[in-house]
Amino acid sequence: MELRERALKAFQADLPKQKAQLALALQSSQTAMQVDPERQFVAPDQPGRPERPDLVDPKEVPRRSPFTPLGHAALMHSIAHIEFNAINLALDCIWRYPRMPEQFYLDWAKVAAEEARHFTLLSGHLEGLGHRYGDFPAHTGLWTVCRNTAEDIVARMALVPRTMEARGLDATPLVQAKLKKVGTTAALEAYAILDIILSEEVGHVAIGNHWYRWLCTRDQLDADAFYAQAALQYAAPRPKPPFNYVARKAAGFTAAELQKLDHDAGLNFPPAHRLQPT
């Protein structure tokens, strides 16, 4: 089966473990698969997903303290849900957009496999706590942006990896700090899982940055102007400090982009420990 067709099959899988296994197979079988950039698929209404978790508005997701066992499980569940949606996001990029260079599809197959590993790690952690993915309500924030940008690949690259996923680069160290403060065996195990996720998410955002700039060059678009327009058009959430400057720089954000983050957030005097963009 051709790579993009297999990505669609994984996208439509309902069972989380099956979806993760199919996504992992995209990377492990890459050398044996052909890529057909010209093929166009009939788009399904939505990705395959299990009956649970119950999906609610982001404001309706209960906030729980990570300092309690139930709160810790709920926090890990919320991150697992993000990773589950991220698998679908990467798969969607592969099958949805025709006539891209072959490397585009291989890059997103790599991302899909790594997101599947993240989800598997978090699912295993939850099971060790006596819970399963689906036990807590979750929201659809990431997938809403994916759906809204489905017909515009440039907007997709602008707003999903460079905005939604980049927020994870900022948020993960804050979560890790809380887990370290909790200090239990479960918390430290979760801390180590997030270390793996953060390291690989830098590469995912970098892939988004690369293809966003490639598309802007191809379509003769001003990258900064288009991003501002797309963020407004699709009501993308604004990045909020504190920013993980080190990770963002490693993911390919330019000095000007990092400085604009400060400007838009009103950070006239960044912290002394911040990595200055060069």
Give a short synopsis of this structure:
The protein has 278 residues and is mainly α. Helices cover 64% and strands 0% of the residues.
Strand and helix layout:
Layout (H helix, E strand, L loop, with lengths): L2 H10 L3 H13 L40 H28 L5 H27 L12 H8 L4 H30 L2 H34 L4 H11 L11 H6 L4 H11 L13
Helix pairs in contact: 1-2, 1-3, 2-4, 3-4, 4-7, 6-7
Characterise this structure.
This protein is mostly helical and 278 residues long. It has 2 domains: 1-35 and 46-148; 153-278, no CATH class. Helices cover 64% and strands 0% of the residues. The chain has 10 helices and no strands. Helix 1 (3-12) packs antiparallel against helix 2 and helix 4 (102-128) runs antiparallel to helix 7. The longest helix is centred in the last third of the chain and has 34 residues, at 185-218. 40% of the residues are buried.
Quickly list its features.
278 residues, mainly alpha, 2 domains
Q: How many distinct beta strands?
A: 0
Q: Uncertain segments of ≥5 residues (pLDDT<50)?
A: none
Q: How far do the termini sit from each other?
A: 45 Å
Helix content: 55-70%
SSE order, one letter for each helix or strand: HHHHHHHHHH
Structural class: mainly alpha
